[in-house]
Each structure stands twice: as structure tokens, then as C-alpha cells.
Prior knowledge:
The structure is a single chain. The protein contains six helices and two strands, in the order H-H-E-H-H-H-E-H. The chain is globular, with a radius of gyration of 16 Å. The chain has helices spanning 7-10, 18-21, 55-62, 69-75, 80-92, 108-124, and strands at residues 39-41, 96-98. The chain is mostly helical. It is 42% helix and 5% strand. The two termini are 20 Å apart. Helix 4 (69-75) crosses helix 5 and helix 4 packs parallel to helix 6. A two-stranded antiparallel ribbon has the order 1-2. It has one domain (7-124).
Amino acid sequence: xxxxxxxxxxxxxxxxxxxxxxxxxxxxxxxxxxxxxxxxxxxxxxxxxxxxxxxxxxxxxxxxxxxxxxxxxxxxxxxxxxxxxxxxxxxxxxxxxxxxxxxxxxxxxxxxxxxxxxxxxxxxx
Length: 125
């Protein structure tokens, strides 16, 4: 199956500018966010006043499952740098928090799971 064999893809033009308009051209987050870092919602959750289709609302919805930054980028079809800036903004604003990645005491199974999730997220980007 070729790149444009599906009708919806044949007419889709690449959108290279739009994601960076979401960050006002910023490319760095004010928060250190490695791709494998799990991100979750701050509890109690602050009320957000964005429409459901706003990318910030979509990120908050995804973070109920504590995805990694790479997974957020993949789920929303955003470049990793854009996802980092948006997630960083939401952390600074008090909506999200970054959970620690695995430490010295992590089991082999926990490490394999983290590596697997990170690779799946990166492949999907």
C-alpha cells in the first residue's frame, strides 16, 4: 500500500506551521521534560476553561492515564518539542505534574515497561 493509497491521505497537505503556532514559536519548556517522563493531573484538579477540542484540554484528558511526554506527542500528532512546551506550560500553570522516572530501586520489569512505553510513543511520533 503506497503513501497516498487511502483517499483521506491523498488530499492531506503536510501542516508544518500550525503546531508551532500553539507555542507562539517557543521551542523550550520552562520545565525539564525527558520524553519518558510520566505526566499526571494535579489533584485536586483545577477547573480548565478551554473548549474540549483545545489542545490543552486534550492533553489534560490524556494525562488521566499518566502517559509519557512522548506518548502525549504521539496521541496528539504533535512534534515532541511542541508537546514539551505545552506540557511544560500546563505544569507551570498548576494543571499537571511531572512524575519521577525510574530510580535506582526500579525492578527489571518496571524498566522494561518504561522502555517499551517510550519506544511505542517515539515510534508513533
